[in-house]
Design brief:
Layout lengths: L1 E7 L2 E7 L10 H7 L4 E6 H6 L1 H8 L2 E7 L8 H13 L7 E6 L1 H13 L5 E6 L2 H7 L4 E6 L2 E8 L4 E4 L9 H18 L1 H15 L3 H21 L14 H10 L6 H18 L5 H11 L13 H9 L9 E7 L3 E7 L1 H8 L1
Parallel strand pairs: 2-9, 3-4, 3-5, 5-6, 6-9
Antiparallel strand pairs: 1-2, 7-8, 10-11
Length: about 350
């Protein structure tokens, strides 16, 4: 088993990564944690169907099960209110907890509910998508969307544990799996040459979801994120490097009305932001091409743009990371560094045309 410990000023919790770690029976430490309190299981109907045996096992520890519709459109205040009304009607109290079984949407939504229900209750993350396993399940970010933009309301709220089983990835549709690979490539670019080389050497095994390779891949990504987040939990500085590809990606996602996945949007966003870094002369054209080749390892067709540059700028301008009427990007900068830059829409248009 691979284990990463997240420690936030003494608030430590385990991140367990192992094939079949979610098989019945659970590990003793997992079973002991589940027996500590009553749990509300929050999942979506796709996960509930694909992982029916796991859901059935968890029901033995669950007092209440709540299913939501899959997708970003469930991340809203109406859904939060419905979940918490159901919890209140069931008599869930501050000594109980929430289990988030699903991808990033379930994790963001369930974690947000846990952070505000009775001013905060325990929760456990069980991520079931590649994107959530390598990225969103770690770090304590929770949130919901507004009409004005993605994740504009949320909280930093760390879980009690994160349990990751690479075998559940076998249930993912290919398109969703490839979307998760975008976050993998993000970590390769953030970490630089060593991780990029490991990705190239092991890519075929990643494509075929080989369990031992996936375990190492997930651990590498999580260890990187965990180190960054422990140093900057509330994203005041270092943690911003994790936003590479996300400024343009979130705008692309919003303009699609969330018909493309977060991972697909980040893939597109990385290509856009790599080009921006090159035109700023932060990276040489050769390095830009090298990184773009990594992004293009993901077998997803590029989406045709059906929006104007002005509309795209407006969408990026709504990003919560922006300030002083300028748009925030975190871009690669030689040698193997990531750095934030604030640009006005006019500066971006000048650079990218």
């Amino acid at each position: 088993m691979e284990r990463v410990v997240a420690d936030f000023q003494g608030r430590a919790y385990p991140i367990l990564i192992q094939p079949n770690v979610l098989s019945d029976p659970f590990l003793p430490e997992m079973e002991e944690m589940l027996k500590e309190r009553r749990w509300v299981l929050i999942t979506d109907d796709h996960v509930s169907t694909a992982l029916a045996s796991l859901v059935e096992t968890l029901k033995g520890y669950t007092y209440l099960k709540i299913e939501i519709q899959p997708g970003e459109k469930s991340k809203n205040f109406r859904q939060v209110e419905e979940i918490m009304e159901m919890m209140a009607e069931a008599g869930i109290n501050r000594y109980d907890g929430i289990i988030a079984l699903g991808g990033g949407v379930v994790g963001d939504l369930a974690g947000f509910c846990a952070s505000i229900y009775m001013r905060g209750i325990s929760w456990i993350q069980i991520p079931t998508t590649l994107l959530s396993q390598v990225d969103s399940s770690v770090g304590g970010k929770t949130g919901v969307n507004l009409e004005a933009g993605k994740n504009l309301v949320g909280s930093f709220y760390q879980p009690q544990a994160v349990w990751i089983d690479p075998f559940v990835l076998e249930t993912l549709p290919n398109k969703e799996y490839w979307g998760g690979c975008a976050e993998v490539i993000k970590y390769a670019i953030i970490q630089g040459s060593e991780m990029s080389e490991w990705i190239r050497e092991n890519w075929q095994d990643v494509m075929h979801k080989k369990p031992d390779v996936m375990t190492q891949l997930i651990k590498r990504c999580i260890a990187c994120k965990n180190t960054i987040v422990m140093a900057d939990e509330r994203e005041k500085g270092l943690r911003k490097v994790l936003n590479f590809g996300h400024t343009a990606g979130h705008a692309r996602e919003k303009l699609s009305n969330y018909t493309i996945s977060h991972g697909e949007a980040v893939r597109w966003g990385m290509l856009y932001e790599l080009e921006l870094a090159c035109r700023l002369h932060w990276i040489l054209p050769e390095k830009c091409s090298e990184y773009k080749e990594l992004v293009h390892l993901i077998p997803v067709e590029d989406e045709n743009e059906n929006f104007s540059g002005e509309v795209f700028m407006k969408a990026m301008a709504s990003d919560k990371k922006n300030r002083d009427n300028r748009i925030s990007f975190v871009l690669p900068k030689e040698p193997d560094l990531m750095e934030e830059i604030l640009l006005s829409p006019k500066e971006i248009q000048r650079l990218m045309t």
